[in-house]
Target: DNA-directed RNA polymerase sigma-70 factor
Amino acid sequence: MDLATAHDGLRPLMFSIAYRMLGSVAEAEDVVQEAFLRMHRAQQSGEDVDNLDAYATTVTTRVAIDTLRSARHRREQYVGPWLPEPILVTDEDPAHRFELDETVSTAFLVLLESLTPVERAVFVLREVIGYDYEEIAAVVDKSATNCRQIFTRARRRVADGTPRFDPSPERREELAARFVAALSASDVAGLERLLADDVVFVADGGGRAPAIQKPMLGAVAVARFLLGLMRQGERFGVRLELSYANGQPAMLTRGADGALLGVVALDVEDGRIVRLHNVLNPDKLGHLGQVGDLFALLGQR
Model:
């Protein structure tokens, strides 16, 4: 087991598991680091490993379970809605460039928050990694029969809310471009046509940035609220930029100096935007480059 040689090749696998388990880039990176330390100590003690990928998966998952258990209390005390930290296609860290499919979408990661740490681990290992129940049992220290029951229970819990994204990436990207254009043109009627009647807008400021404390519902309310934010931002040179976050179209908001102020993930179903998740908490954006201070910006009024 040559960890020094295998390090760079293992990081994307380990990070992809930890991120799906935690929904946090910072915590996932800490988990990967701790997992490598444990693997190194095992190597120093003479432990023999046949399958390095499987071993890395096991250690990473176990560390992630422990981390998630300690994180749950902090998230219960979180100011306002909690959303996962976004990963953009422009992220330069090689470990963050794993396949960004529907299982890392913001909507899906929010659903996984309803699972216990062990349920989440079983679900990720089965649904994403493709492990069989015997392999999962060895990771989470349960019987294969118990793991099958845990997976069935977890899948049932998230089934009703599982997002059904439009299958065509081009269609999603085109709708996102129309959304940004309508917002930039202050076209309220155009915005309302792009939003589902029961669209949900959620913002995560975490007490570190100004944000609504409860989800906003409905096309009319969301369209007018967004236009109000746009008019306010225009006075400070705020601009919009299309991107992809967690495998789905996204809108970045940047200050006049280019600093990132927020990432809005857009979930598209049946040709309409059904969910908007706006991450404003600067602590969740630092891995993406320079981050602006929204409180200070608004204080210039």
